[in-house]
Amino acid sequence: MAKNAKMKDSTISIESPVIWQDRTVGRENVAPDQLVANPNNWRIHTRAQERALAGVLESVGLVDDVIVNVTTQHVVNGHLRVAMAISSGQPTIPVRYIEITAAEEDLVLATFDPLSMMAGQDKELAKDLLDRLVEEGISNDQRIADLLDNVRDQVGLLVRQTNEWDGMPEFEQGDATSWAQIIVHFAGPEDRHKFAELVGQKLSENTKSIWFPEALQANATATSRYTSES
């Protein structure tokens, strides 16, 4: 990919384009605890997201402003950054002020992230980018490594570890139960010895059970086997 690649033109044809308004009215570094969370913010930020963002912020720093609407004084975008800035004791955070109506604020709040999620994916470029980050050592931070794995998963590049049993034939468990059982009592060691000679098996003080004939015992412990479905 060329380093000075130009932005691609949109494929949407507009006969009479509307000139976009810049609703920005100012920028300022503000103490994060002075900002007001939007009561209509519907996004729930998870611990995993906070952990991933902390890794990026500590590695790179802030590259985007928190957006605040001067009409309502509500944060429109950047709630997690504000919360993390407060909890980590950041003195200030960059804020971009915009001036829009309350209704426009609702529209931006509802669509800001979903719009970016509608974008397609170039899997080859994504793979090159992610591989380059690994080569550059940026993914040495486990938080960033986990985040990049999440990106790979979303793009369809994550190779999942297969279970060691995958592809094995179906397991068949035979019936290893006995037909009948009896308890034999011995008056002494000599009686036990005579019984052992009678059944043709070795018995000791540690013997708890036997099979008769003895060959059945080997069969009982060898009934577990793999069978082919064919």
Description:
The chain has helices spanning 47-59, 79-87, 102-117, 123-135, 142-155, 189-199, 215-220; strands at residues 24-30, 66-69, 74-77, 93-98, 171-173, 224-226. Helix content is 36%, strand content 12%. By secondary structure, it is an alpha+beta fold. The protein has seven helices and six strands, in the order βαββαβαααβααβ. The protein folds into three domains: 24-117, Conserved hypothetical protein from pyrococcus furiosus pfu- 392566-001, ParB domain, CATH 3.90.1530; 123-155, no CATH class; 174-226, no CATH class.
Keywords:
230 residues; alpha+beta; Conserved hypothetical protein from pyrococcus furiosus pfu- 392566-001, ParB domain; 3 domains; two-stranded antiparallel ribbon; 7 helices; 6 strands; 12% strand; disordered C terminus
